[in-house]
Amino acid sequence: MRKCPVFSQCGGCDYCSVPYTEQLLCKEEKVKKLLKDICVTESIIGCDNPFNYRNKVHAAFSSSRRTGVKCGRYQAGTHKIVENFDCLIEDSVAQKIIKDVKEIAVKFKVPIYDEDRREGNLRKVLVRVAVKKQEYMLVLVVAKSEFPGKKNFLKEIRKIHPEITTIILNVNSRTDSMILGDKSFVEYGSGYITDELLNLKFRISDKSFYQINQAQTEKLYSKAIEFADIHENDRVLDAYCGIGTIGMTVAKSQPHARVTGVELNRSAVNDAIKNKKLNSLSNIDFICADATEYMMNSEAHSAKFDVVILDPPRAGTTPEFIRACKAVSPKRIVYVSCNPVTLANDLKLFIKAGYKPERAVPVDMFPLTEHVETVCLLSQLSEAPKMEMRVKLTEFDLTEAEAKATYSDIKEYVKEHTGLKVSSLYIAQVKQKYGIIERDCYNLPKSDDSRQPKCPEHKEKAIVEALKHFKMI
Ligand code: SAH
Which pLDDT band holds residue 407 (cuts at 50, 70, 90)? Predict the structure, then answer.
């Protein structure tokens, strides 16, 4: 096992001194324990090489008379910098670039930012790697955009590291711990790098979210796609989609499926739209919205999805998302989670909503650390197909008024004139209200079942218009 030279000071990798096979067992056990009474946990998917996988590496600068210029990670819970260019999990070339950026900064006497006095300029450095294509992005984070000697500085770093394909100057005058500020200036190259995942290309800019372990991401997504089992014409929702990586993998795997990606972060959505073009995909669209609001809106419009994939942040999803998910009625749900604790809680709510967690597979995206990713398949518990049966019976037994238009005619008319989707149940409720249905109505629940949804006002109005059009009222 390789040894970390700063293990006791850094605190970044809890499993640093644990043999890799044991790390995998610990993580598998952790997920198994949390999902014990919920579903079967299968064997963890490990890494071929658990070292130097991080494709995003950043370091902060500090300077004092006593220590000189330092560049490294903050010690956990402090602002003390631990310098180490031999980190076991970060990309090796990225670390060399950061080491050389530091040396050039010292040589050129670039003023290092002092957090307490708010003086100086160079604050942080970030390197992102497109592993498949070996493209490197260098981001210099400064407190103000004036950077005397910038041209020579950049020339020097490019000479030593020709693998750098783009350089960005990011201006961050914030006082919080965010690495990047709002303004970015492209100093060299295109301003982005392009990586590949499962034969799709993804443009990554300085601020885009992108999974940090490329090889394991391919394994994770392959498992998610296998679980999703997409068929022709399936409507698929990729909730919390980031730059659209999972959704585009689905869209490519099944060109006749229709995929919608929903993501809150505007710049990630912009990247997703560019990535869609880059991969010439026409069966996917992206929407910038809160995933829960989108889901509740879908419920209100009676939209349906055949498969829902969700990959929320560590806090998990919301009870409202899960409730609305039931209404859009996917046959399968694939939950990708970076936190098994919130996954377990959310799965319990999905069970209440009528879904059965079938299988969970942990994936080791973050070797040497305690973190573990899990992908879980849920399937819809079959309800007696009352609605469909009743619709058919109704068509056999028509009253005079009803004979003027079928349920399908009414649905089509409403859709065409208002864009709304209405269910047979809602139509039946309105028909009964207007006295059209004189015999037993098969579209209405037999008992006064309070769980049956009531037709909302705006849909009732649309149905009434249709009934008038067909001269049924
Ligand atoms: N599926 C993507 C991203 C997963 S990370 C991938 O594999 O790369 C989680 C994503 O959820 C982030 O992109 C984050 O911006 C987004 N997010 C966070 N809160 C959200 C919300 N309330 N609604 C929609 N997206 C959200």
Answer: confident
Q: Does 155 score more than 90 pLDDT?
A: yes
pLDDT on residue 450: 45
Quote the pLDDT of residue 451. 60
Active-site hit among 338, 376, 441, 455: 338
Lookup: tokens for 233:
């014409």
d(CA 155, CA 302): 58
* Residue closest to 241 by CA, chosen among 268, 218, 221: 268
Give the chain's mean pLDDT. 90
**Prediction pTM value:** 0.79
| 441 close to ligand 1 (CB < 6 Angstrom) | no
pLDDT digits (tens, 9 = 90+) for 267-309: 889 999 999 999 999 999 999 999 999 999 999 999 999 999 9
- Give the pLDDT confidence score for residue 472 in this predicted structure: 85
211, 221, 264, 287: residue to mutate for ligand 1 pocket, most atoms within 8 A of CB: 264
Does ligand 1 lie within 6 Å of residue 245's CB atom? yes
Both tokens of 460, joined, read: 């009732």
* Distance in angstroms (rounded) separating the CA atoms of residues 411 and 423: 8
In terms of Cβ atoms closer than 10 Å to its own Cβ (0-12, 13-18, 19+), residue 367 is buried
- Residue 262 CA, closest ligand 1 atom number: 24
In the predicted structure, residue 439 carries a pLDDT above the cut 90: no
Mutate to test the pocket of ligand 1, among 240, 245, 286, 297 (most ligand atoms within 8 A of CB): 240
pLDDT digits (tens, 9 = 90+) for 311-334: 999 999 999 999 999 999 999 999
In angstroms, the CA 211 to CA 209 distance is 7
Cβ pair 347, 31 in contact under 8 A: no
Residue nearest to atom 21 of ligand 1 (CA): 290
Whether 338 is catalytic is yes
Between the CA of residue 362 and those of 43, 55, 209, 211, 359, what are the distances in Å? 7, 21, 21, 16, 10
Name which of 171-185, 305-319, 439-453 the model is least confident about: 439-453
Q: What is the pLDDT of residue 87?
A: 95
